[in-house]
Design brief:
heterodimer, A: mainly alpha, 17 helices, globular, B: mainly alpha, 10 helices
Amino acid sequence: MIGLALGRDRVRRWAPIGATTSPGTDARRVLQLILAATWLLDGLLQYQSSMYSTMFGEMIGDSATGNPGVIASPISWNAALVEHHLVLLNTVFATIQLLLGLGIAYRPTVRVALAASIAWSLGVWWFGEGLGGVLSGGASPVNGAPGAVILYALLAVLLWPADRPGVTAPFVAARAVGAPVARLLWLLLWGSLAYFALTPANRAPQALHDMIVSMTGGEPGWVTALENHAAAVLDHQGLTASIVLAATLIVIAAGVFLPPPLARSALILALVMAAFIWVFGQAFGQILTGGATDPNSAPLLALLALAYWPPATAASHAEGSASQPDEKSA
Amino acid sequence: MSTPAWILETFAAVMVLVAEVSAGQVVIARAWTRRGGAGAGIAVSQLLIGIAMTGILVSGLSILPNAVWEVVFAIMTALFAWCLWRENRGRAAASVAHGHYAPHLAHSAAMLYLFAAMAGPSAAGPGGMSGMAWGSAGGMPTLHAPVLALIFALLLIAFTVHDLDRQAGVDGYFHAVGRPLVPAGSALAAAAAEPVALRHTAQADAAETARPAEPVAYTAERLLLSPAVVKGCQVTISVTLAFIMIIMI
């Protein structure tokens, strides 16, 4: 269904009674709804019992490790605050994320919710995720760099319900910020992932192996078997795997600057890469362990790739750009 | 530590409200006379789901053994599956997801899974009753086949955002209910027959003008059958059910 929407960028204005879709359900709205669903999932995961244990505060505190003092101090303060007021603060966190999801899904509040999600994401990226380990040297594209939550903010910006007047955007992500800025953001994201793949901590012989093995705790047997198999393949192959990973990520980073047919190939590669990372590197975000706060970065990378997908025809996209009357008036 | 009891009780209170609203809709629709049609059937299902989920969230409010609920939701699942099949005969497979009965089928199937996955001896509480409190001594109860729980949770979340994205009233059920209950040609009849969001301005103005003269019962009927309330119940059930699935993984 998503592919269909992206391909046609279909538009429906006021639907008659009994119709099954809403007005202006174009590709961008579909992607906004997926983002909303992800926020909803985040909020519900935050209500899990493990989040009401000391584990949550410790997890926040651990993200300060290796960061510069100016970054680490507020994280430690936040961790202490959460440990002291665990039930209240975790419930507030969960409810905010739930409301962000509901707000993005409900058309009249989509702008407010997207704006709030940007502010919330930036706050959580610093105070909860320690900037995703970007400054601590622990970031890896496999373990969720540059921090899943910053990708929510990026998506909120790229999927903002506005269109640049007089410009036909080549893909959804370019509609609000323009193609040059959107491509630059894509290059920055995937280029940084390629860099992280080659850092000393990640190119060590057992780095990827150990990272994957560490994901098996608390997982169902079939997930553990998958992870162990992947870890066995990467045993003492850290450098080779890092080089291959970085090369692939560079191809993906450059892909959006290529003509549409080649760009689509690069985006398919990005989707495949995201799937591999999610299954083997992130163990499905560890959702099945009951201790995940989000589905991790890979699904968001896939969502980003869909936002850069060139539509089948420019004409159909131009039609899509003229849609969403309710959002514009909101 | 488990998810705090007051959070579960808050969700339970919301489900009690959904059950009460659904009960009101059942009464207005006169479900026992079959005048309400599909809308009444859906209201009955939401009433049952509201009662069952309240019992899951707060064990003291559980009124039936798990086995009985399993039978109830197995019947409801089969019924909605049949309705969905009948509604979408000859249409593309993709249209099934947009069918009016699709979310209700998902709700019923999720409830059936929920009770079946908790039904093991280790999960059954005193007297075989459902409810989370009996798991509180050693943490939350968990569900068998947690992958299914995750799949159901994702499905319910998908229906939540899908329902919220749609204009209130596009589902169309309960439109038939309003007609025989209100005087033909009145503003209230128009209100009951058409979704609020799509109502013509002139009709809306007429409804506003007529409001002071409307009997209280009509106002209550219009409120309970309003598209916003119908959608609100549906979304609330989806979110609460997804919540239960996630915290019991």
